[in-house]
Write a structure and sequence with these properties.
Elements: E1 8-9, E2 14-19, E3 22-27, H1 29-35, E4 38-42, E5 49-50, E6 55-61, E7 65-69, E8 74-79, H2 81-85, H3 89-92, E9 101-105, H4 116-123
Antiparallel strand pairs: 1-2, 2-3, 3-9, 4-6, 5-8, 6-7, 8-9
Domain Lipoyl-binding: 22-104
Modified residues (N6-lipoyllysine): 63
GO cellular component, one term: glycine cleavage complex
């Protein structure tokens, strides 16, 4: 089980786990629940650049289409092909096998993200 208090969060309901200068990014269980059953995930290409706050992908569910925002500026070093092949992983394991992308980032930008307590306050969860 992932230690949710060790993660960083965005107001767009994404979580970030940092390992050195590589940030693993996914959407929270709160977002996955609000989306409903995820049926399609469109992720940025590996080796592409993303900018914080900008749309970099899309998540479609049986209820709606949601945009995926880059939580940090960086280079995409890996995408989760398993989620592209089986989007339901976003619902069944959002903090584990349902991760979306890995970005090489400037770790100094992490200070702008939310901690667990601030995210829980934001969502009222």
């Amino acid at each position: 089980m992932t230690d949710l208090s060790a993660l960083k969060y965005t107001a767009e309901h994404e979580w970030i786990a940092l390992d050195g200068d590589v940030a693993t990014v996914g959407i929270t269980d709160f977002a996955a629940d609000k989306l409903g059953d995820v049926v399609f995930v469109d992720l940025p290409a590996a080796a592409s650049s993303v900018s914080a706050g900008q749309v970099c992908g899309e998540i479609e569910s049986t209820k709606s289409v949601g945009e995926l925002y880059a939580p940090l500026t960086g280079e995409v070093v890996e995408i989760n092909d398993a989620v592209v092949d089986d989007p339901s992983l976003v619902n069944s394991d959002p903090f584990g096998d349902g991760w979306l992308v890995k970005l090489r980032v400037d770790v100094s930008a992490l200070g702008e993200l939310l901690d667990r307590d601030a995210y829980v306050e934001l969502t009222g969860a």
